[in-house]
Amino acid sequence: MAALNALSLLNTVFGYPAFRGRQAEVVEQVAGGGDALVLMPTGGGKSLCYQIPALLREGTGVVVSPLIALMHDQVAALREVGVRAAYLNSALSAQQAAAVEQAFLRGAWDLLYVAPERLVTPRFLDLLERAELALFAIDEAHCVSQWGHDFRPEYIQLSLLHQRFPKVPRIALTATADAQTRAEIVTRLQLEDARQFVSSFDRPNIRYQIVEKADPRKQLLDFIQAEHSGAAGIVYCLSRRKVEETAAWLEKHGIRALPYHAGMDVQTRQRNQDIFLREDGIVMAATIAFGMGIDKPDVRFVAHLDLPRSIEGYYQETGRAGRDGAPADAWMTYGLTDVVQQRRMIESGDADLQFKRVGLAKLDALLALCEATTCRRVRLLNYFGEDAEPCGNCDVCISPPATWDGTVAAQKALSAVYRTGSRFGAVHLIDVLCGHATDKVQQWGHDKLTVFGVGAEIDEKGWRAVFRQLVAQGLMGVDHDAFGALTLTDKSRAVLKGEQQVWMRQEIASKTSRKSRRPI
Ligand code: ADP
Ligand code: ZN
Predict the structure, then answer these.
(1) Which ipTM value was assigned to this complex?
(2) From the CA of 248, how far away is ligand 1's center (Å)?
(3) Ligand 1 pocket: which of 10, 11, 12, 48 to mutate (most atoms <8 Å of CB)?
(4) Which residue range or ranges hold the Helicase C-terminal domain (predicted)?
């Protein structure tokens, strides 16, 4: 009976013929009073999973959402189809908020969206006691995870909803959940008894491509001009300055581009966002401040000029491409400096040891994706606990990189680090390996070392790839107190002793290195 009602609500109120994926199951679970944890990719249709149960049950569905802009859009869309919806957040004046609250107590809302910091106040919790509640929906539930980049401290307090209102069903939703985040959501929100609904995270229309960083802006321009001329896209950069520079540079080369980062004044930022959403073919250069809750279906590409912090970040950011289902690209340049920079950001931060360890593990997983010699989609989905077949729609599937036995090259590189006292960066070490007697090399007497010139069979570009892959694989370390000097790690020893083979991607290594077997 409930299922029938759910379907007729879907048809009549929302105007859709059928539920998608696991929506119907989720609706049944929550409408029947059970708890649910819903993991669905962006664009999968999470909203209906709580909107329809809220309409099916007596009382108001209270939706916790961290995104003011999204609340506003959702409420406007719901009102358009005749659902009685409202929101409470800092965008309202005190009078407006009071009016919404009064109406809430009268039972005037089917759905009430509330910012988390407001929800957990004693005053608001008292208000909840006096209202009739259909359910609690906790949107963007991964914000409860301390390890993610969207962490919101107030989310931790949301466990008290269960304690104060044990009879009200709860549904937590997220588009981001590796096993660890999922486990954290369950424990922190006390959702041990919730049924879990995990949808496939595959986005088959997105083509994944990760290219070696050489001249990144030029590579980006070539990519846009070749594949996405006149299309809307997002280019993610790490720093605000780089955002500004990238936007200006694209503009200079005839591509309509705008900057977006948290350091800009609110009006300009908002205006740029509006233009991006409204007009065709705008490229937004942005920090990760941009994107959460942006619903633009025809974003044709998401490019990364810098490495994200984790696979979740990468997946979420690239997920903003191709929400309309048409072909789209996730394109990233990646190089040794990215690895060093990200490691430094984690290791030199103020966070405690445990936090750093998790951060580094997440970075390592992402690096393994970058260095993958098998289907990137399979890797990505495996990370989210899904099995998959090679996709035929990523760079690795399309042109599989050959691998080569880089053990000897690795030994040479590690020896160069060791012989020079673990105090130098890649540029200097490569000069030593290639036998370039630069001033610096001579000044340190490194032209006298046995490793001087032993790596001449690989060119500089090839060596950069070797160093990058060694650092990415944890076979070489980075000393951040010594300005990013490359060092040996526990794992280096096995390679130096010849106990461990090192496989590398061919396309980024070089020339004749495979044949070289010169002793060190
Ligand atoms: P999410 O929150 O998971 O990113 P949304 O709830 O915003 O996704 O839904 C994404 C889009 O898909 C919206 O435009 C929504 O109206 C549409 N949608 C959701 N469920 C269905 C359905 N069963 N049939 C058709 N369209 C749907
Ligand atoms: Zn593939």
Answers:
(1) 0.97
(2) 35
(3) 48
(4) 216-364
